Amino acid sequence: MPKVHNFSPGPSILPRQAMEAGSRACLEFQGTGLSLLEMSHRGKEFIGVMNEAISLVKELLGVPAGYSVAFLQGGASLQFAMVPFNLTDEGDTAAYTDTGTWASKALKEAKMFCNVKVLASSKEANYNFIPKNYEIPKDVRYFHVTSNNTIYGTQLQTFPNSPVPLIADMSSDIFSRPVDVSKFGLIYAGAQKNMGIAGTTLVIVKDELLGKVKRKIPSMLDYKLQIENESMYNTPPVFAVYMAMETLRWVKQQGGVAAMQKRNEEKARRLYAEIEANPLFKGTCAVEDRSRMNVTFVMHKPELEGAFNKAAEAAGLSGLKGHRSVGGFRASIYNAMDVDGIDALVTVMRDFAKANA
Ligand SMILES: *Cc1c(COP(=O)(O)O)cnc(C)c1O
Questions:
Q1: Burial class (CB in 10 A: 0-12, 13-18, 19+), 68
Q2: 309 and 168 in one domain?
Q3: Do residue 281 and residue 171 come from a single domain?
Q4: 241 and 266: one domain?
Q5: Which of 19, 119, 143, 212 could form a disulfide with 134 if both were Cys (CB 3.0 to 4.6 A apart)?
Q6: How confident is the model at residue 344 (pLDDT cuts 50, 70, 90)?
Q7: Residue 187's beta-bridge partner residues?
Q8: What is the pLDDT of residues 14-51, one digit of tens each?
Q9: Does residue 2 sit within a domain?
Q10: Which of 203, 221, 253 is the last residue of a domain?
Q11: Is 171 in the pocket of ligand 1 (CB under 6 A)?
Q12: Is 292 inside a domain boundary?
């Protein structure tokens, strides 16, 4: 089969070696004669998987003492509700920035549980930049940001210093670069963009924030209970946790998140350079806010977009069609995308420009 370069926004590209390990684990796991999919999550084999996945998260991100790591279910979308549910009481206020569809869904959900102050929004500009001139109030329970806006192709290049606990949705850029976890109260990420498959959500939380609210929290939504039960209060999504573990093993073998950052910067540099140099294309976002994970671009002549999409597909490039709210194209170039994939896309763009000069 010819190689397909997978630019899908999510579920998305995974390291080949993680896929191969996952395939083997489905058939037979660790000499037990059983598939990983048909064994108890209370057995030593799966407990080993969960423990290794959690310790790789801690090691790769340098998670300091006083923080816990959990693998939960319900996607990043359930975190939109769990964060305000666990960290506020009715009548409390939480602050958000509105930087895209996911940020806007997060704050909409929070409004069901607390007051929400939107400090800044780029909605009027179809979210093509990250607002920066705002002050974070001291009398709110937390401040929520989306670190990478998957749909629009913008990314926080640095995180604000917050006087209140900083909460970040890192679904589409976790493990793509080093982060100083001690700056955050809570980080969450659905696995299926940059660290595995759909079905599990990573949560990293500062322990001292938990157990402070008066409202009753249903068990499955209670961070404290989930952490006390080592992410096994109920049956965990065993295969999704396994795939996260294998993906993180690969990140570690590549040299960790600093090496990922270096490679991701080079990939993004090559692709943005072509978008700027090529007479047919233009980027959609403010240059200083451009994402290194989701590269969004359109054509000066939109009537050529169908033909370019066909040329890209014929060259084995998959998943490039932009989200309907931006149009054009979006190249999702997560950790597992190699430089060859970028070069293949750049070549198609150049050839297309020559053919349509
Ligand atoms: C995809 C995505 C989500 C939604 O994730 P689900 O796991 O499908 O709930 C939330 N936030 C960001 C930044 C995303 O990219």
A1: buried
A2: no
A3: no
A4: no
A5: 119
A6: very high
A7: 168, 204
A8: 999 999 999 999 999 999 999 999 999 999 999 999 99
A9: no
A10: 253
A11: yes
A12: yes
Among the candidates 253, 279, 306, a domain finishes at 253
Q: Which of 152, 172, 188, 325 to mutate to test the pocket of ligand 1 (most atoms within 8 A of CB)?
A: 172
Using CB atoms within 10 Å of the CB of residue 65, give its burial: 0 to 12 exposed, 13 to 18 middle, 19+ buried: exposed
User: Is the distance from the beta carbon of residue 75 to the nearest atom of ligand 1 less than 6 Å?
Assistant: yes
Are the beta carbons of 285 and 129 closer than 8 angstroms?
yes
Whether pLDDT at 3 is above 90? no
Residues 227 and 263 in one domain: no
On whether the CB atoms of residues 209 and 85 are closer than 8 A, the answer is no
Region 294-323: mean pLDDT is: 97
| Rounded distance from Cα 81 to ligand 1 centre (Å) | 13
User: Considering its fold, how many domains does the chain have in total?
Assistant: 2
* Gap between the Cα atoms of 190 and 10, Å rounded: 10
CA distance 203 to 155: 20
pTM of the predicted structure, to 2 decimals: 0.98
Distance of CA 72 from the midpoint of ligand 1 (Å): 14
Residues 242 and 274 both lie in one domain = no
- Which residue's CA is the nearest one to ligand 1's atom 14? 171
Structural domain span for residue 210:
16-253
How far, in Å, from the CA of 174 to the mean position of ligand 1? 12
**Per-residue pLDDT tens digits for 241-295:** 999 999 999 999 999 999 999 999 999 999 999 999 999 999 999 999 999 999 9
